[in-house]
Structure formats: structure tokens, C-alpha cells
Design goal:
Elements lengths: L15 E6 L5 E6 L7 E4 L8 E6 L6 H14 L3 E5 L5 H11 L3 E5 L8 E5 L4 E8 L2 E8 L3 E9 L7 H12 L6 E6 L9 E2 L6 H13 L2 E3 L3 E2 L4 E3 L7 E3 L2 E6 H6 L4 E4 L10 E4 L22 H13 L5 H16 L3
Parallel strand pairs: 4-5, 10-11, 14-18
Antiparallel strand pairs: 1-2, 3-8, 4-19, 5-7, 6-7, 8-9, 9-10, 11-17, 12-16, 13-17, 15-16, 18-19
Protein name: Endonuclease/exonuclease/phosphatase domain-containing protein
Pfam families: Exo_endo_phos
GO molecular function: catalytic activity
């Protein structure tokens, strides 16, 4: 977890000069102020269809090994939008990578000193409208024909424990800025439950509860994942091996209604100490229809059923009973459909 300088959080409230790069090579210079961000609209009329997203704390994109790995992921999964954190490089390097992978546009927040750096890279499909940015997030709206408009935020939380409250305040501020369907993904440098850490000292209760309360206050819920239980590790192969789930995807109720079977897959290989997250909006796109949840009595015999109910209920702690039931039904359907 790369340290971020104390002054980086303050830069969220100052204007940032950066640039967007289009596929024809032209540069669009952007001046964005977090409080009243100047819109940068990049609309692509591409055909409707499945969209997918990659989020990865790459721990540096200057190394050829990391670039090769990213290219391999793109060749296999072809994500529409890529969010990178801790790039440790400036915008010119991200532009080189964008050209090498043949994507249509990008937006960059430069690294500060030896740490930080964010990048959002997108294909010539759908639309991306940058709404606000700082050293800890890139916030945009995604516009897709026949699907609608929704909000996508790539987030990087403060790694220092004493500054976690700043990350929580940032999330709460972002939650107040829009009421449309919203999805947040990235390395939050936070955990919600004890079981999300293995090895080392237990996570302080105050940090677990603080992050959980923040997620709830923002009207968000963890959409879950498939793949590795942990997304970050340290000192593998030694007695000091630590594993944690620091990377995740959070969504509000409207987003989950728009994409009810969206799924995050934790990829099993990485050149970083963080595993990449692949968000698949799934084989279908939401179309309004009546669908009733059906609980199968045979599930009662399964220990996993009780565990899913308990964990899903805890994940939306503080929400209404209706929201809790809806999320619980969603998780049971995901599990029961494959059992």
C-alpha cells in the first residue's frame, strides 16, 4: 500500500489541470474544480450491448511487466473502461499506454512525488462524462444507448489509518452530489468485517465499523464477488503472510435495479500486490419486467444458506428492512441458481 503525502487530500478542493486524449490524437485540456466541476463530455454512439470494466491498483505503470500484464487482460476480457490507481506515473506515460492498447480516450490524475496517480481509460463505445476528480477518485457518468445514464466512480482510499476518516468524508461528499444510479469501485484500503483479513493483527473494530457505517450512510451496498477471497497480500510464503480484502465494488439501490445480475470477478493473477477486479454487467441488460423471488424449501437444509442470509443482512446494516430483504433475496438467488 503506497503512502500518499498528507497534502494530496487537500488537492481535491483545488482546480486541477489535466488533459483528455481522443483517438485522433487531439488533446482536450480540462480544468476541473471539485466543488463546481467543469464538464468534459466524450460521447460515442457505439452499439448497445454488454459493458465491462476493469479496476486495478497496479502499483506502477512504468514497468514493462505491468504493461504486458494489462495488455494480456485486455486481450482476454476486453473491458470497455479501465480504472488504474497508484499508477506512479504522469499523463504522458498513460497516453503511451492508451495508444498501445488502441483505446479511444483517457483522463489522468498525475502521481504526486513517489506515490499516487489515477487513470481512467475508455474505448470508443458508450459515453464518458467526467464530473469531478482529485488524487483519490475519478468520478464520471457513463452514457450508453438503450441502457441509460449512470454514475461510475473509481476510488482510491487513504492508506494511512489516521486518515481513513478523510476517505469516508470524501465518499459521503460524493454521495450527496447525485441521485442517479451509482457504482463505486477500487482500492478503498478498508475492510468491513473481521473475516476479510487473514494473518497479522486483527483490524481495529473502530475502522471496520467506521467504513461499514460510511457505506450505509452513502446508500451503498457491497455487490459481492467471485474468485479469491482476498485482493491484497503481503509477505507470502513466510510466517508474516497477511491477506486482506481491500478492493471491492459498491452500488446504490438504483444501480442494482438497473444491473441486477452484474458481477465482480477477482482475477487470480497480478504483477501487483493487489488483484484486479473485473466488473461484468452480465449477459443481459436490465429491461423492466415482473419477476418474483422464490425461496426453495430445500435450501433450509444447507448451512451455506444460513451463512448467506446472515452475511447479506450484515452488509446492509443500517438500511431499511425492505432493502435488506431485497439484497438478501438477490444473494440467495445468485447462490441458489448455481447450486
Amino acid at each position: 500500500m503506497e503512502k500518499t503525502s498528507p497534502e494530496t487530500m487537500g488537492r481535491c478542493n483545488r482546480s486541477i489541470i489535466s488533459k483528455g486524449v481522443m483517438s485522433d490524437g487531439s488533446l482536450v485540456f480540462l480544468r476541473i474544480l471539485h466543488q463546481t466541476p467543469k464538464k468534459t463530455v466524450v460521447n460515442f454512439p457505439g452499439p448497445p450491448g454488454i459493458m465491462s470494466f476493469l479496476a486495478w491498483n497496479c502499483r506502477g505503470m512504468a514497468k514493462s511487466r505491468a504493461i504486458r500484464f494489462l495488455k494480456e487482460i485486455i486481450n482476454q476480457l476486453r473491458p470497455n473502461i479501465i480504472f488504474l490507481s497508484e499508477t506512479l506515473v504522469l499523463k504522458n506515460k498513460i497516453e503511451e499506454i492508451r495508444k498501445a492498447i488502441h483505446y479511444g480516450g483517457c483522463f489522468v490524475v498525475d502521481a504526486v512525488g513517489q506515490g499516487g496517480g489515477l487513470a481512467l481509460i475508455w474505448k470508443n463505445e458508450g459515453g464518458v462524462e467526467i464530473k469531478g476528480t482529485c488524487n483519490h477518485y475519478i468520478d464520471c457518468e457513463v452514457v450508453c444507448e438503450h441502457i441509460g445514464r449512470w454514475r461510475y466512480t473509481g476510488f482510491y482510499g487513504c492508506p494511512e489509518r489516521q486518515r481513513r476518516q478523510e476517505s469516508w468524508n470524501l465518499l459521503k461528499q460524493l454521495a450527496r452530489e447525485s441521485q442517479i444510479p451509482w457504482f463505486v469501485i477500487g482500492d478503498f484500503n478498508d475492510m468491513m468485517f473481521d473475516h476479510e483479513k487473514q494473518g497479522g493483527r486483527p483490524q481495529p473494530r473502530a475502522l471496520l465499523e467506521g467504513f461499514r457505517d460510511t457505506v450505509s450512510d452513502c446508500g451503498l451496498m457491497d455487490i459481492g464477488f467471485t474468485g479469491s477471497e482476498f485482493t491484497w497480500e503481503q509477505s507470502r510464503g513466510t510466517g508474516l503472510w497477511i491477506q486482506e480484502r481491500l478492493d471491492r465494488g459498491l452500488a446504490n439501490h438504483d444501480w442494482r435495479t438497473m444491473f441486477p445480475i452484474a458481477e465482480i470477478k477477482v482475477l487470480e493473477v497480478s504483477t501487483s500486490d493487489h488483484l484486479p477486479l473485473f466488473l461484468d454487467l452480465n449477459k443481459k441488460v436490465y429491461a423492466p419486467r415482473v419477476r418474483r423471488f422464490k425461496f426453495e424449501n430445500v435450501w433450509i437444509r444447507e448451512d451455506q444458506c444460513r451463512k448467506i442470509v446472515q452475511e447479506s443482512w450484515e452488509q446492509v446494516e443500517g438500511r431499511s428492512v425492505v432493502d435488506k430483504l431485497e439484497f438478501c433475496c438477490l444473494k440467495l438467488e445468485e447462490w441458489g441458481g448455481g447450486s
